[in-house]
Structures are given as C-alpha cells and as structure tokens.
Amino acid sequence: MYTSLTNRRSFIKKMAIMSAMTAAATMFPGILFAEEQEEKLPKGGNLDWKKAPCRFCGVGCGVLVGVENGKAVAVKGDPKSPVNKGLCCVKGYHSVMSIYGKDRLTKPLVKKNGKYVETSMKEALDLIASKMKTTIKDHGKDAVSIYGSGQWTIPDGYVASKLFKGCIGTNNVEANARLCMASAVTGFLTSFGLDEPMGCYEDIDHADVFILWGNNMAEMHPVLFSRLLDQRLKRGVKIIDFATRTTRTSMAADKSIIFQPQTDLAVANAICYEIIKNGWVNKSFVEKHCSFNKGLTNMGYGLEDKYKFKDKPEKIDFEAYKTFLEDYTPEKVERISGVSAKDIKYMAAYYGDPNKKVMSLWCMGMNQHTRGTWINNLVYNIHLLTGKISTPGNSPFSLTGQPSACGTVREVGTLTHKLPHGVVMKKEHREHAAKIWDVPVENIDPKPTYHTVEMFRALDRGDIKFMWIQVTNPMVTMPKLKRYRDACKKEGRFIVVSDIYPTPTTDIADVILPSAMWIEREGMYGNSERRTQYFEQMIQPSGEAMSDTWQIVEVAKRLGYEKQFYYKEETHIEEIYNEYRRHHEGKKHAMAPLEVLKTQPGAQWPYVDGKSTKWRFNSEYDPACSNGEKFHFYGKPDGKAVIWQRPYEPAPEVPDKDYPFWLCTGRVIEHWHTGSMTRRIPVLHKAMPHAYVELNPEEAKQMQIRTGDSVKLTTKRGEIILPASVNERGVPEKGQVFVPFFDENMLINDITLDAFCPISKQPDYKKCSVKVEKV
User: Fold this and answer.
1) Of 353, 491, 548, 662, which residue has the fewest beta carbons closer than 10 angstroms?
2) Is 645 one of the annotated active-site residues of the chain?
3) Is 290 noted as a catalytic residue in this protein?
4) 181 assigned to active site
5) Fold adopted by 661-752
6) Exposed, middle or buried by CB within 10 Å (0-12, 13-18, 19+), for 685?
C-alpha cells in the first residue's frame, strides 16, 4: 500500500499526465519517487481521505491521508494543493508509516535509581511542575528553559512562549530552527526590517533563471526541484547550481559552478561589482527604494561564551559602496574562490539582464555559515541593485527544512528575543503581548537570554538547571556535541524530553513524555512561502501519548496559571489559534481564519479581505503598501530596503597540515534530520541504512580507500569512524569530505565546531578542518 522505488517506465506511464513528475522522471530519474497509486493502495475498503500538510520538511506539500478502521493506511499527494499539485517525494509517500514503529513511546517514563520506570501521565506532569517550581524558587526564573522545534505546531510553540515568557517571566525559549534558519531571519530583518520571503512558490512558474546558492534541491526539496525541471521542459529556463560539491542537483542543472567553502561572500560581491561596472543597476529602483549601510565587522565567530558585539554599523552612500566593491573584481575573486572570472561574469549577466527574471534559492548552505547573515544580505544586494524583487519570477527565496520552522518559530516567535508579533526588547510589543496573554507587562523580560548554543552552554555552566525538550533531538544535532551531552548528565540538572520514539536525547532525560504524532492530534504548520495549513486529528494517539500543546497546558495549570490557560481540551486548538491571530491583526501580517484553513489547502499571510498575499512590498499585490509608490519596504522606518556592505572573511577554522581537509555535513533524500522517524520506515532504512563519508575519487585512490572501507575522521574535538563512499551519490572537491548527520550510531556532530554567525547565532555545520585516514 506504500510506494517503493518504481521503475522509470512505470513512472512515466502512470504519471505522464502530471508534467512535473514526468519532467523529474525523464530528465533525472531518482529525484522524485512516485507511487503506482491505483495498484498499490488498499482495495476493498472504504478509505476516508483527509487533508494535511506533510509531516516532513518546510516545503509544505499537501497530502491526503487514507484512514481505515482507525488507522492511517495510505498517503497520496493532494491535487488541490498549489504547493505540490498532487506530487510527493519518497518521504511524503511513506509518511504515515513513521507512526507505527514497534518502539513507539506509549507511557511516561521517570528515571528512578538510574532506571526508567513507567508511571501515569498525571504523576509525570505533577513531577515536572514540582521540579519547575522548586528550581524557580531556589535558583530564579532564568534557571528553567524550554527547547522546542520547527516541528512544533503553531499551538505548541504559542503556549510554550506564553507560559515561559508571559507567565514565568523568562526568555529561555529556543527552538532547533536556530540551527537551520536563523541566518535567513536576520538576513530578512537587516535588509527589509521584516522576516520571511516576499515571494512565493508561484515565482517558479514565472522565472527564467534559477540560481541555487549551496542548495542541493534535488534531495532536500525534491518536489520543488521537480517544478524547476518542469519549467525547463515547458519554457527552456536555466538552472545554475552554485555549490561546494557535486550533487544530484549539479547533475540535473544546466551548469554547475563549484566554489571553495566560505568564498560565496566574495563571489556575491563580485557579482555586484559586475552589475555596477556594466551599467546593469536599476537606478530608479535603487534611488527610490534602497539605502546603504556599512556592516560591523569586528565580531568574531561566537566561540567564546556570552559573546558581545564590538562595534556598530553605519550609514554610507552608493559611491562608498561602489569603492568598497573594487576589491572584488572577478579576477581577484577567482584567486580566492576557485570560481573562474568567466563564470562569475556568467552569473552576473543573468542577474543584470533586464529581460530575464531570476529566482535565487538557498537553504542550509547559506544559513549554516559563520557569516550567514552576511551572505543572505549579499544575495539580497544583487536583487536590490537590479530591482529584481517582489515581482512574479524575481525572487530571492530562502527555503526551510522543517514543516513549521516558519510558522512556529519565525511567526509565533519561539526564539529568546521574539514575541508573536515583535521582540521582547520593545515596550509596545511587550504591552501588546501582555494584554492578550492577560499578564502584567512586567512579567515579560525586556532582555533576551540565551540562543540555542548559549542555552546549552548555560546548562553546562549550571546557570540553567531545568530544561524541557520537545519534538527535537539535540543529542544528535548540536555541534561540538560531546560538551553538551556531558552537560545534560551533570548533577543538579533536570531534563524532560517529549518525543514519539527513543533517541539519544531521551537517553539523557529524567522524565520522558510520550507525544502524540502529527495526525494523532490537531494543529497547524506554516511553510516556507508563508502558507499556514491546518490538519485535524485523524486517528487516536498511541497509548497514553499526549499532544505537546496539551502537555504544556497541563503543566501551566499545575504551576498556578489556570486563568491564562483556560482552554478546554476538546476545543483548545481553535481557542489557541484564535488567540494567536490577535497578535497579528493588521494588513502586514494578518492570519487566515480557522474556517478558511479547514476548507482549503492553506492560506498565505498577510491574509487580507479574504485573500492571500503572494508578493509583499509590491503595491499591486500587497495591501500593506502605503507610500503611493509601486514598492514599499515598510519594515524599515524610511520604507527603504538596505543594501549592505559586507566583506569576505575566512572561516574560523581552515585546513592546515595537521587537519588538511574541509568537513561538511548535510542530509540525504531518504532521511529527515536525525532519522528518528524515517529510519523506522523499512523501505527508507533499507535504501539508506547508515551514514558514510564521501571522498574525492582521486584522493581516495591516493589513500587506497574504496567504497565500504573504514575511514577515521579526526578534528580538534574528537574522532569518528565511518564507511567510505567513493563516486556514489555525491562527489566532493579535492580537499573536502561530506558526511550526512542522520545516523545516531555515527554521531558526526561529536567532532563538528560550535562556531556561529554572531548576528543570527546559527552554527556553521559546513566548515571545519579534519584529518582523514584509512583504518
């Protein structure tokens, strides 16, 4: 009843009517896996099909889940969804199988004398509330914390923020999206004053050229990539892969351009140099709608605890910016980046051509970067200089990796400095939240506390004593992992973990709560294109599993906040969402009513006068524009977007004689993040059973390493042994190796570096130095 990897002939025969699938199959077999739905779906039963967003990734594909006799037994793409138009990737087609692993957590577990003992949900929740009360009484409110996820539903994240920031009064709220999209947030905020893309997926149908900045879309966002391939079949668009290694995306692109790690900063500046030199600047747009800033540069790499900035940005003019770019001629940058001057000019010519609409797409390659905010700004600079922004097909577009990293982390505001509609630092934002939350405004602390890496450092130091972890697996994902795993085990720490399966993170917990998964409960996700999508509860939770939302509500009531958490269990999602919408009232961020979300496959905010806004900051489409001009970047006080002067700077740790290779980490198409769900899906686990280290073929030959041989990787933080992969899925450049991070039995993050972008606080998982040896 579920798909396996179907053969190419069957793929085309069954799905030819769906042109995007046909494009993926004929042009690049293996990118997208389709199901022979009519033959594979259960026969003879009366399936009840219900809509939902997919559980995996930030694309937000619409799926239809077939329910029979109380079980989810089938999945197919929702043809009504404008996101995926009936398509799914291999994870999507198998998504409901992740519910039925044999080792589902079904009862609360409490550690007693070093062993886990089953207990009732009431006893477990009582214990959590008691520990929180005691910790706050003995150590203060900032000794308790909650660490959530871009997999939190919107109600999950909302009640977490309300409890901790509004009631308890601590800003110790963070989410794992800090590890994957924080630089996208700070990039948007510094350039435009507001977060989230101004465009949408429909840009794909209008663009003439797609430039992918360090983004392996073929594996990370395969349904969207299939739409790019479809447009190439229909309209002859160009796809340019700009990356540090050769991937499936490179093989399917029209052109692959390889750069040395970290040097995307220099290349982006060189493109801007070419745009100005050749007279490709959209002068009218820049004069009316842009200002110029010189960014701070003396900022380090976040390696020291409690990092503080050392200088401030300043205003400059166009001429000063033009002078700065003289150090970034294509010829100079070729020597830094390894990208030929010819290829730099090739990309610049597409951006500069007034007759070509260009879409830039990126994800972790730009965001997981010690200068992640900078590189986001620099790509925006390219679009702003040419005026190729906020119009159909002209779109700088940051993709996300989790189903609600946008909806729950960026919109709800589950980061230490955020509130649902603003930031804790601004009095008017605190007053607005306090009124809705029915708490004294003094409860909301005006100072952010700890971002994710610093939060775990605080746990290590003992500043934080209690941490509640929901819907995430930091004991696989944290960089420089051993430090933080050891921190969780220190005496005087109390860790609560809510999850659906045992993981390395549940291994360090004092209390484990079984969570209801996805369609076992009701909720909403928000995807990369500002689309909020609702899903109903379709099946009963396993055992005593409870939604993460209701776990928090129950603990809040035990802490004495019955007045603020008045919700009724049977209607709490509707009540919470309606309350949450109050934070976003107005033309700039209004959310669609729940009744709208229930009847259609999502709606994009701002949702104004019964209509989704597809292109922001453009008065033709965005009702929030009010300056009388075609464009209004209303996130900034002067209504202008900022073009930032940002230099190239090297990574904090570069290869040397002792550690002569670059180490890069990432994902594979079969598994999602740490694999705690997808590795319990037999066909996916069989297709990709373990992690590996990709080596450059020439260097593997020199070291006499073949596929399957054991290889030891050593950094300044430790060592790990993995099987080699040579000339298989991806091919690194000389001097580089690549390791996927999904395998909890091969914890690559034990040896990665916890340096981060000091503006976004997002770690760089893509660059540290490593020694490679055959075992």
Assistant:
1) 491
2) no
3) no
4) yes
5) Barwin-like endoglucanases (2.40.40)
6) middle
